[in-house]
Specification:
two-stranded antiparallel sheet, protein-macromolecule adaptor activity
Length: about 500
């Protein structure tokens, strides 16, 4: 009891201190618990954000890879039409056949000239032989005349008359033989000439005017086809990025809306499930992806028409024998690009929207029918959603950001075009292109800068026309888009620009 009493007395005496100590201890405990919970919440939030960012990054990167494969699958459809309608190889084949025909004709003329020379030589030898025979006969006749002068004087008249008769009889057949030989030689020469004149002309020969027209056709089609292929490839790539990033945004927002808080798993919607808020009907997705049919079958022809007009204005006046340097070639392409990409004033950019997507309801209905959809536009929910997607895509196409991205993409692909079409022929020291974006290179003072070569325009046409095949094959030209930072930023902006999707989710 004394111990307990002493404790009570101690508590009474130090009541205030004990209360402060208890308050401090309890507050410290509660504060520790609060800090621990906040730290745990912060860690969980950080982990969730990191997982969400990694998920978004993974999905975005997969979406960009899908864009590349989608463009690769569509390029054969586009390439077959461009190569068939601008068939430069057929014109080259005509010129090659004309060259072969010229070589055959030259060979025939040489053989004919050699035959005529042999005939003339034979005629000359025959004439020389006939002249020698006539001279021998005359010498023998003279000797006979001298022998008859020793006869008697009374028989001289008789002998002379006989000699005259013999001379006449011998001279007549000689003259007839010489004349007949000359006639045969003349007839031989005439027959040779008649054979040469009546011999058929080698098929495939072209005159100068026909060759000039073929070369002009090659010149115009080479520029038109290659530039059309480059512009069509660029527009198709940008349209595919717009489509897949818009659809990818819907899919990502819907997947996040159904994310399980306890376990971060994502459930994707199947085709047989009903669409929920923030997610598109699979039928609408297929129709929206099929909108590229317009560019593949109609839009590229509109682009080709404008390119053809630009080539007609800029290239048609250039002679085939015009000597070009690399600087001249760059200026030529710059003029062509300005004529295609800008209006007549040179300031306002040309709108590519009508090349990429259908404008009117009739055009939308046409691409739906051609793509295999039986829906009437716009009458049901799927086509109404399609209209919203098309309108949003057109808004992006009309934006200044799209114009800037299009310019950056064209700069990149035309740099590849310049390297293959001009630099290899006009700059002997041009090495392979670096597509990684590293444009700055160290220059060594000891290195000797090679002088630019000069080549005629006609010699550059094969390399220019070949760029259409390289662009449509999708190798170096298509790979260049993966290194364009402006395109990646534009795709990320579309993918992460959440609007109504979050509200509906």
């Amino acid at each position: 009891m004394p111990f307990l009493q002493s404790l009570k007395d101690y508590a009474k005496r130090h009541r205030k201190g004990l209360m402060v100590t208890a308050a401090i201890g309890g507050g410290s405990y509660l504060l520790g618990r609060y800090a621990t919970e906040k730290l745990r919440d912060f860690q969980e939030k950080t982990m969730t954000e990191r997982v969400a960012k990694e998920n978004l990054k993974r999905r975005f990167q997969q979406n960009q890879n899908d864009c590349v494969f989608t463009v690769l699958s569509l390029l054969p459809t586009l390439g077959d039409q461009i190569l068939n309608e601008m068939n430069i190889e057929a014109v080259w084949a005509k010129l090659q056949e004309a060259r072969k025909a010229e070589r055959l004709e030259q060979k025939r003329l040489r053989e004919q000239a050699a035959a005529e020379a042999e005939a003339a030589k034979a005629a000359a030898e025959a004439a020389a032989a006939s002249t020698t025979t006539t001279a021998t006969e005359e010498e023998e006749n003279e000797k006979e005349k001298e022998s008859t002068t020793a006869t008697k004087e009374q028989d001289q008249h008789v002998d002379e008359s006989k000699e005259k008769g013999e001379d006449a009889s011998t001279q007549k057949p000689l003259d007839e033989s010489v004349s007949s030989l000359g006639a045969s030689v003349g007839s031989l020469g005439t027959s040779i000439q008649s054979e040469g004149g009546s011999s058929p002309v080698t098929p495939g020969l072209l005159d100068k005017d026909e060759k000039y027209k073929l070369w002009e056709e090659i010149k115009m089609k080479s520029f038109t086809r290659s530039l059309t292929s480059i512009y069509s490839l660029t527009l198709l790539t940008l349209l595919t990025h717009l489509q897949l990033n818009l659809l990818g945004r819907f899919t990502y927002v819907w997947s996040v809306s159904v994310l399980n808080r306890s376990e971060p798993t994502i459930r994707l919607q199947h085709a047989d499930e009903e669409p929920e808020g923030g997610f598109l009907d699979p039928q609408t997705e297929r129709m929206f992806l099929s909108a590229s049919w317009w560019l593949l079958h109609r839009g590229w022809r509109l682009c080709a028409k404008r390119v053809e007009e630009a080539v007609e204005d800029v290239v048609s006046g250039l002679p085939l024998k015009r000597i070009l340097t690399h600087e001249d070639a760059e200026n030529l392409i710059s003029k062509l690009r300005r004529r295609v990409e800008y209006e007549r004033d040179g300031i306002s950019p040309v709108s590519c929207r009508s090349w990429m997507l259908p404008e009117t309801d009739e055009e939308i209905q046409e691409f739906l029918m051609q793509a295999g959809f039986a829906e009437k536009y716009p009458e049901n929910e799927a086509t109404l959603q399609l209209k919203k997607l098309l309108d949003e895509t057109k808004d992006y196409i009309d934006s200044p950001d799209f114009t800037a991205v299009l310019g950056s993409c064209l700069d990149e692909v035309f740099a590849i075009f310049d390297h293959h079409a001009f630099a290899k022929a006009l700059l002997p020291g041009a090495g392979p292109m670096d597509l990684s974006g590293q444009r700055i290179q160290e220059i060594n003072d000891n290195e000797v800068v090679e002088v630019t070569k000069k080549v005629t325009l006609a010699n550059l046409l094969p390399a220019i026309g070949r760029q259409a095949h390289l662009a449509i094959s999708g190798n170096e030209y298509l790979n260049a888009f993966a290194y364009i930072k402006e395109l990646q930023a534009f795709s990320a902006m579309i993918y992460t620009q959440y609007g109504e999707e979050i509200t509906q989710a």
